[in-house]
User: What shape does this take?
Amino acid sequence: MNRIFQKPDNAIQWFDPRGRQLGYLAFILNRITGMGLALYLLLHLIMLGKLAQGPQAYNSFIETVHHPVFLFGELLVIFAALIHGLNGFRIILNSFGIGVEKHKPLFTVLMIVTLLCGIYFAVRMIAR
Amino acid sequence: MDKPKAVIIGAGFTGCATAHDLALRGFDVTVVERGPIANGASGRTHGLLHSGGRYAVDDQEAAIECIEENLLLRRLAAECLEQNGGLFVALNESDLEYAHRWTQSCERCNIPVEQVDIKQALVWEPNLTPKILAAYTIPDATFDPLRLALTFAATAQANGARFRLFTEVEGLIERNGKIQGVRCQDRTTGKSSELYADCVINASGAWAGKIAQMAGDTTIVVKPTPGVMVAYDQRLCNRVINRLNEPGDGDIIVPQRRMVVIGTTSFEVDEVDYIPVFEDQVQMMRDCAIQLIPAVAAARQRGAFMAARPLIGSSTSGRSIARTFKCFDHQETHGIGGLVTITGGKATTLRAMAEKTADTVCAKLGITASCQTREYPLRSYREFRGNDAYH
Amino acid sequence: MSQKWSLNIEVQRQKGQEQPHFDRFDLEISPDATVLDAVEMIWAFKDCSLCFGHACHHSTCGACGMRVNGVEKLTCITLIGDVTQNGGTIRLQPLRNLPVVSDLVVDLTPLYHRMAQVKHPSVHPIEENKGVANQQTAQQGESDNSYTRLADCIECGLCISVCPAAMTSPAYVGPAALAGAHLAGVIDQQICAIVDTKNGVWRCHSAYECSEVCPSHVQPAHRIMQMRRQLLSQRIRRFFGLQTFHQRKQ
Amino acid sequence: MMNSRKMITGEGSGLWLLKAFSGALLVIILAIHLVVNHLVYEGGVMSWQDVVAYYQNPVIAGMEAVFLISVTAHALLGLRGILLDLQPSDAMLAWINRLCTVIGIAAIIYGLWLLLTVASFG
Assistant: This one.
């Protein structure tokens, strides 16, 4: 009777999409991209510290970052930012009572925009 | 001074209401229920708070009980009720003939019935068939079955009663020709225990015969009389719509939340743990309901269910059995002490049944305490604290 | 008429302090029967120790919510044919985020208490919910405000079971009670102290899953969003020194 | 009964609004950022010299400062929101709040210092 099934250990269940609908998928994406972007922000701030160390330090750093692995990482960040930003935009609209009934088509449209923008950046990046 | 102890078997309408009544009379009450609250016939009702109109012609005793309790519950349990009244409507000549007898009977039973203009009835209930020949208003209402039981349980609990849910009675403890208590198993843990009481009250509805048999009394025959009810996913009326004729299959449409529930058929069974819903009956009820409200034809079926009314036995067929409840002191019927059985009745009369049972128990134990449930305000069903099994 | 299907039903069991595990039952049942019928048949014919919640069997009481193949359902109105196929499996689990009493039963009383706190009306005038039955009479100008009906929310707990915020945080007021507060109409100070907090509407992550599983037209997520709008506009009005919704009510 | 000039509001709505506004701001600034860096400046801002030159523009430097503050606030509020879901005790929450404040202020000071330093190279 006293076995409360709500506990921090359940956090892994946040990310279980089985049997869930589009809105839940949006939540999962939002949470994962949010955490990813926060981590990136931290790294990015540290990285930019190289700027203060003068041209040599920064430019040589940039050289290493040109490696395809980092470029792929950068693409991920762009995708994450697009997903998180546009989905966040949807949640703000909904919270002001706008488009609540249409939250699912809204999400679909925004994710198509995300995909198109993402592909555009990817193509440009590969072209370089 | 020790409180007299009572164990009630069954947490349906009767069990919960009896717990409330006895708790108010100063009893130490424990309710033992093998499932959750109102899981048997109590839960599976169309939720009609009878005005008594349905019984006025054939069973005036039941009709009078109904209207009295109806008026009381409107005041006491408003939280669980849609108090929109009801209509009795006539569709053919035979209905109109019946109407005359019916209005007279209602008058005799003090049921306020008023004939209304057909046009007015159709304004109130635009989905009603325009073919109606006459319409009468009557103080029917709709209740939420679980919440009605819970509101009594919550009040009983607030006054000290304990509810041991998911606890099945395995046997009665008998010594020197007197029932001393019950042996029961907590189904949530599998552990058995014994509960002692000055009086055991058998309020197990359709299963009352089985409990009585545990005490060796085979004289009580409960005829489980199931009926099919069908819920549709649109609220097609705001008042309860009754067919103005002899009680029959599919003669009532009860609005509830955003649904209507069509009731009901009536037949007899021997085994009551599982009764299937018969598809042909569902179809037949739908056809009957369409006669009253044609829009039912376009509504989607939301659920169909079956409940075994615990009617008091005789050899005649189900529907004509008197629906008034009966309270047996097994001392009188079979020389067994410490056991009272309450059975029969209907949801609308739950409080009256409890009063009668508590009277019987008090008389049996030589306790003078009068019934307070007519006036005592009921608590919100939301105050029910759940299972007291581990106290 | 309808042919019976043979199914494999997996039921999560838990007695006392033991760890949850699954029991399997073979069952012959019509696809037109409900999942609750299947559970009741298992109890009646296969294993009488099975505990499950149920009362009204027609979606008005909210006692029979379970997870059916991982999705929250009110089992009394969920048809077998809609959740599996002949020869298939149905996996039954109790709702999450509520205390488990035993097997498939959860204790719904914490939810009832929250609904009382937010003053969710169990019965309300019919007009308060637009678009219900009475439309036609309203058009005829004969609308009768005196009709009441039982509220949409049947307090079944399905929305709590799917809510990601409720999954880890018992203090979260939860979708049902937040929607209940919205239905209560006026957000008075007492309700405000419950809903306009970090454990209230602002905790919601807009996963909308509560609205997806709600069997009873409540759409809790939508109501939470509406309430956010109300609270925000109230806040903005106050910021600009305008009358709040509240003060106008006085 | 409701003499509610001062209504009881939890901390919820204020911080939520902050998160929403900073989020909205980020979407706008990021959009400008992406357009400028990837469409106007062909090839993107890459070398040290480019970056320093880029920050010479006061509008851009100002925008970057706003971006820095919003993104820090938004990220920390977001993380705090996730931690709130994990049901911290009141004492724990107080520590989370302090930690978030300290990290936020530190990050903003560091970022602004960096911005000014880089801009001063020019």
